[in-house]
Amino acid sequence: MGITREGLGRGPMTRKHYCEELKMLSDSLTQMATSVETMLILATQSLELGSTEMAEILLRGSESVDVCEIEIEKHCLEIIALQQPVGRDLRLISGSVAIAMDLQRIGEHARKIARITCELPTGGRGQTPNELRSMTDAVRSMVHSVVSILETQALDGASGVTLAGLEAEDALADLRTSAHAAMARGSAESVTASYLLSAAHHLTESAGLAVDITERLSYAMTGRSPRALPAI
């Protein structure tokens, strides 16, 4: 992402410089969300196809989102220190810190899904049950909606994120039932079922983070949120 800013620390920003910094922050957050979406797609595709090659590509190139999270936090603190924003601007800037942290966590869940693909028994690779595919579709849709909200600065898709989250929870409940049945039988597929159930939990965590991000964005943009959030 490479955020570089001349003159920070020399004194308060001009209004023009301040607006440029806010735009840069917004662009950085959108770029990070896009990178995380790509990670999630690659991780879930590698799981669905049983492709360890795709999983390894993700694992080798995933560190950039960690760097983005650190740079966004530094950028936010610099703007707050130099400009002392209030109201909507303060909500957007402080909210960006929490959103970047949540995005980094989604990226970490994507990495864990990729590791599961690499650890799956050879015979169980590429055997993704329909319930897990439903979860994958729902969570991908949620993260894509987050990217769209960041790009457009409009909350049009916010309600869809919550609905997709409920779909993911229903799919997880169904997957748990089938996975536990396989484990109880003690069949060869029980090992695969346990790995896939673990992947499903990472998807569920990602879904919850996508909901949190959407609610943080709603609060930052409007001052209101569908549910109470901790102070950020």
Please name the defining characteristics of this protein:
single chain; 232 residues; mainly alpha; Methane Monooxygenase Hydroxylase, Chain G, domain 1; disordered N terminus
Question: If you had to describe this structure to a student in words, what would you say it looks like?
Answer:
The protein has a single domain, classed as Phosphate transport system protein phou homolog 2, domain 2 (Methane Monooxygenase Hydroxylase, Chain G, domain 1, Up-down Bundle), CATH 1.20.58. α3 (64-83) packs antiparallel against α4 and α6 (158-185) runs antiparallel to α7 (189-222). The longest helix is centred in the first third of the chain and has 35 residues, at 15-49. 78% of the residues lie in helices and 0% in strands. The chain is built from seven helices and no strands. The two termini are 24 Å apart. The protein has 232 residues and is mainly α.
Instruction: Specify the CATH homologous superfamily.
Output: Phosphate transport system protein phou homolog 2, domain 2
List low-confidence stretches. 1-10, 228-232
Main sheet properties: none
CATH architecture: Up-down Bundle
Broad shape: elongated
Number of H- or I-type helical stretches? 7
List the domain count as a whole number.
1
Element-level helix/strand string: HHHHHHH
Rg calc? 20 Å
**Arithmetic mean of pLDDT:** 85
**CATH topology grouping:** Methane Monooxygenase Hydroxylase, Chain G, domain 1
Q: Which band does the percent of strand residues land in?
A: under 5%
**Distance between the ends:** 24 Å
CATH class category:
Mainly Alpha
